[in-house]
Design goal:
The complex is a heterodimer of chains A (about 90) and B (about 220). Chain A contains 4 helices and no strands. Chain A is mainly alpha-helical and about 90 residues long. In chain B, strands 1, 2, 3, 4, 5, 6, 7 and 8 form an 8-stranded mixed sheet that branches. Chain B is globular and about 65 Å long. In chain B, about 35% of the residues lie in helices and about 25% in strands. In chain B, about 35% of the residues are buried.
Chain lengths: ~90, ~220
Amino acid sequence: MEELIAKLKPEIIAQLNLEEIKPEDIDADAPLFGEGLGLDSIDALELIVLLEKNYGIKIEDPKEGKKIFFSVRTMAEYITEHQNKKA
Amino acid sequence: MTDLLITGYCRIKDQYITLNGDKLPLPEKADHFQEFIRMIYKQYLASYPKFFKMDNLSKLGYCCAGLLLEKTYNLEKYGKERIAIMASNRSASLDTDLAHQQTITDPSNYFPSPAVFVYTLPNIVIGEIAIRHKIQGENIFFVSEEFDAKTLHRYAKMLLETNSTDAVILGWFEIMGDKWDALCCVVEKVKILEKPDGFHIPLTIESLDHIYSSTNT
């Protein structure tokens, strides 16, 4: 899990053009939206693209997004769960 | 009695920046637009993380207006609804439209970016300037083959004379690939006896043309 979190952080930075943020600035458990990184609705769509492009995961139910994208850790957990299901 | 005055301008063309007649230095020559505009942002403008999410056209307009408004102006003397933004260019949002097109041409690698797509309209640059400087007045974007002083003059004059507007941010923000060219002017309605101490010239077609042509290099 920690390995995946470490991989996700630079991917999120690149996907969202967070040029002034370094991976170590991102707390894996902090909320991505609202406070935290202060992401907006377009960023949410970009995260959906990231999951699809980098991990082949399509989010079918938009309601799931709030839970999946709460933090980097919840994203990593979702990816792991999805990969385990596939295996 | 009031006069309509151009009270400041900023020009960004190729590797040059001119602010009210003075050349602003940059630490080195940039190899491409991204490097150039990043240098301006880092050297002269206040931190604004959203800058890095903007498309090239918005970055250009944001920096050109920002150099002028952050360095030389206190627009707070006007109500936020009484400042207008007019912008214009030749290529509309084509630079970004092409970037978006690249993400949708290959069916096996079809990942359109929402963050790119939202910039596929030229007037988004106006929104970025308005958000940053808390401006809520009139706004309009013109597309014309060349810098059109006549249209810009006529529209700015109309806005200022209809009593809806006290100041106009007037811009030409053109970018297409590796060619960029921007001019931003502030035009204000000033009481004849209260003319500003700093740079000011009357708003005329000739004065707009003069600022544009005299800062071409």
